[in-house]
Design brief:
107 residues; mainly alpha; disordered C terminus
Length: 107
């Protein structure tokens, strides 16, 4: 979900620095559930160690974004609030997608 929020902002701004992060973080480059640059996913797993639920997912996403210490990424993420996040996450997780086993968090 973090990727989609940032990608939506990039669609509007075409910011080069944000685009670079998205290129490295892309979950669609490889078949496995990791990022184009494996270090991005490894960093995410280092920061987010507890199970992700719909209820805590926004808080954990913000924790990860804050850990990047990147003002461009931070500002790009700031347009979404928790209510909109949960609405979008519920919609995304209700459909088939890569990493589909994550749909279990809705239960």
């Amino acid at each position: 979900m973090i990727y989609f929020v940032l990608d939506a902002e990039w669609d509007d701004t075409k910011d080069d620095q944000l685009g670079q992060f998205l290129s490295e973080a892309s979950p669609f480059t490889f078949a496995e559930n990791e990022s184009a640059d494996p270090a991005v996913y490894a960093d995410f797993k280092r920061i987010i160690t507890e199970p992700i639920t719909l209820e805590n997912s926004f808080k954990l996403a913000k924790r990860y974004i804050d850990s990047l210490d990147d003002m461009t990424v931070f500002e790009a993420f700031s347009w979404i609030d928790e209510s909109e996040w949960k609405k979008c996450a519920s919609e995304y997780l209700s459909k088939e997608h890569k990493g589909g086993e994550a749909r279990d968090i809705l239960s």
